[in-house]
């Protein structure tokens, strides 16, 4: 096919439901044979919308995703980055004295989150393939929030270290999951 210079070929895709193997109204089980198509396509057809995908429709869907999903992802990522820096703010407000930290304990609190992320990355990579992304991301964010909330009740090095390790474990999967989402 030859195209005029400057013109771009337009692709219009259609989604066709999968055709049933047998169209018999009753297969002996008392149930009708229904076509085994995509459930999302059936829902679209029941709502009376078109199943033709055009570049305009694709752009509209992408814009909706960008306006609704990305702000949530950016907000969560911002909170995680803020959490990583709050340990330095806590030292200014006296966490070292209140939790009786001495020696390298404060340094371990700062680095433990990264150590936990490094150790749990292989498990996270495995889970991202085996578990549905939405469930994995929801569980990771929820457990990360719980671990962060528990950190407010920690009063000594052991409790603080445990909370920071759990924060690192649950944070390990969030950035890779965000990449998979986008």
UniProtKB/TrEMBL annotation:
SUPFAM superfamilies: MFS general substrate transporter (SSF103473). Signal peptide: none annotated. The chain crosses the membrane at residues 108-129, 135-154. This is Major facilitator superfamily (MFS) profile domain-containing protein. The keyword tRNA-binding does not apply. It comes from the Eukaryota. It comes from Penicillium nalgiovense. Residues 1-36 are annotated as: Disordered. It is a multi-pass membrane protein. GO terms for molecular function: transmembrane transporter activity. Pfam families: MFS_1 (PF07690). Keywords: Membrane, Transmembrane, Transmembrane helix, Transport. The keyword GTP-binding does not apply. It is found in: Membrane. Residues 69-182 form the Major facilitator superfamily (MFS) profile domain. GO terms for cellular component: membrane. Its main location: membrane. InterPro entries: MFS, MFS_dom, MFS_trans_sf.
